[in-house]
């Protein structure tokens, strides 16, 4: 291992594997190292046996749950927006050829104690039980405005400057009720709290447009989300394969790795026992950089194995349900994510549901009660609290480029924002995400 590299990447979480793949495509010489003996790091997908090792001290799973090898349980469950940044990265790098995708059956929102399908366009808004007749007309006008809006075409702006107008003011322009604002802001624009209301409207309008464009990206979609067969653990492995194709070197099961610094505190490589590898930059997840990160919050996640779909979701094999903060009396939203044997992540006739949120109290497990209440009867439930860490610096001074932890959201937009920001800081340029079309999306 005593070699010189352009970059050393520590950890095989999804973010690190994407960076490794992108740098390898850029003709950089990359060494990728992980202390674990499997790909995925914090974002791995586990078999049933691995799940019990992690949460039950290695106790044997109940035979009624089926074969361990049939399970691929995501530790950081998230869906992909069909026209979102992760899909565009997959297309840009051609990693899609290593993956199969299945459309997610539905996107839902909790309002006044009931689960409703999310209306994402004018025709769905007219049919939605979320709104009364007159509110539907106002919402339809709002959606038409958003769908037609083009930042570079003033004719679509209708005299409104969205870079200055707040989102609250834009809602007022269309006289939308608080309940309608709630599901638009949280279930379409995917904001995690209500801070966006006092900010300029443009970013939120573009987020709603993304939802709409994702919904109609591929024929036959009932939601804007996609999900890979065999779980999200397929994603880091696919990017690792991409890196290897372009000459990247991988070393798993290396528990003793530590970062080396020069006398000025700049990272110059890594040490692994007697072996040393040098590099111009070191990239990795927060666990490899003690003292260079801070805890900015905690996420609590419950993993439930069930023998039925989530009630009130039209017997869907895969859904997202967003519980906006106001609906549960919280500061942050709660998210329910569900997939099933139809996605090759569980045994026949088994569903896996996840409930996650940002921790607000000293009793995180109790905070999940509103989400868990939506699931119905469960066969098994596992609960975990994870720190969310962020780097103290941007990496330009010490050449340590550290990813942020994974938040509670069940979509990848914030994840890929972090990856693209890291790529820009490492290379000094933006990643070109000129999209191609994949052929392997199943409705």
Tag the structure with descriptive keywords.
443 residues; alpha/beta; FAD/NAD(P)-binding domain; Guanine Nucleotide Dissociation Inhibitor, domain 1; 3 domains; 7-stranded mixed β-sheet; GDP_dissociation_inhibitor; Rab GDP-dissociation inhibitor activity
A few lines on this structure:
With 443 residues, the chain is an alpha/beta fold.
Q: Helices, strands, pairings?
A:
Layout (H helix, E strand, L loop, with lengths): L3 E7 L3 H12 L4 E4 L11 E2 L1 H8 L17 E2 L5 E2 L3 H9 L7 E3 L2 E6 L2 E4 L4 H6 L5 H16 L18 H7 L4 H11 L13 H14 L9 E4 L5 H12 L3 E3 L6 E4 L5 E6 L2 E10 L8 E14 L12 E5 L1 H4 L5 E7 L10 E8 L5 H4 L1 H4 L7 E12 L8 E3 L10 H15 L13 E2 L1
Parallel strand pairs: 1-2, 1-13, 2-10, 6-20, 7-15, 13-19
Antiparallel strand pairs: 3-4, 5-9, 6-9, 7-8, 11-12, 12-13, 14-17, 14-18, 15-16, 16-17
């Amino acid at each position: 291992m005593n070699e010189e590299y352009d970059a050393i990447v520590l950890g095989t979480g999804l973010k690190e594997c994407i960076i490794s793949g992108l740098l390898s495509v850029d003709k950089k010489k990359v060494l990728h190292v992980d202390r674990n003996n499997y790909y995925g790091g914090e974002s791995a997908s586990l078999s049933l046996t691995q799940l019990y090792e992690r949460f039950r001290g290695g106790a044997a799973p109940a035979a009624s749950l089926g074969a361990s090898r049939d399970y691929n349980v995501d530790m950081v469950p998230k869906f992909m927006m069909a026209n979102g940044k992760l899909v565009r990265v997959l297309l840009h790098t051609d990693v899609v050829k290593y993956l199969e995708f299945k459309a997610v059956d539905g996107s839902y929102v909790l309002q006044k104690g009931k689960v409703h399908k999310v209306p994402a366009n004018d025709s769905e808004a007219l049919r939605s039980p979320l709104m009364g007749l007159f509110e539907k007309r106002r919402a339809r006008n709002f959606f038409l405005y958003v769908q037609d809006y083009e930042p570079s075409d003033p004719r679509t702006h209708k005299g409104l400057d969205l870079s200055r107008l707040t989102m609250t003011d834009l809602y007022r322009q269309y006289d939308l009720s608080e309940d309608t604002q709630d599901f638009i802001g949280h279930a379409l624009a995917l904001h995690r709290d209500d801070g966006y209301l006092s900010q300029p409207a443009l970013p939120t309008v573009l987020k709603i447009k993304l939802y709409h464009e994702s919904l109609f990206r591929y024929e036959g979609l009932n939601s804007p989300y996609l999900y890979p067969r065999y779980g999200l653990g397929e994603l880091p492995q696919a990017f690792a394969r991409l890196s290897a194709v372009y000459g990247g070197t991988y070393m798993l099961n290396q528990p003793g790795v530590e970062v080396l610094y020069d006398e000025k505190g700049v990272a110059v490589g890594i040490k692994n026992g007697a072996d040393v590898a040098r590099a111009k930059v070191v990239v990795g997840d927060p666990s490899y950089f003690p003292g260079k990160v801070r805890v900015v919050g905690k996420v609590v996640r419950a993993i439930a194995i069930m023998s039925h779909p989530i009630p009130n979701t039209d017997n869907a094999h895969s859904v997202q349900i967003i519980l906006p903060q106001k609906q549960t009396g919280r500061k942050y939203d709660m998210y329910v994510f569900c997939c099933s044997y139809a996605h090759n992540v569980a045994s026949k006739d088994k569903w896996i549901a996840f409930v996650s949120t940002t921790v607000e109290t000293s009793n995180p497990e109790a905070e999940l009660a509103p989400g868990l209440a939506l699931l119905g009867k469960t066969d098994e439930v596992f609960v975990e609290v994870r720190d969310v860490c962020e780097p103290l610096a941007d990496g330009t001074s010490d050449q340590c480029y550290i990813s942020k932890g994974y938040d509670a959201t069940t979509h990848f937009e914030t994840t890929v924002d972090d990856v693209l920001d890291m790529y820009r800081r490492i290379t000094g340029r933006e990643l070109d995400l000129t999209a191609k079309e994949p052929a392997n999306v199943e409705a």
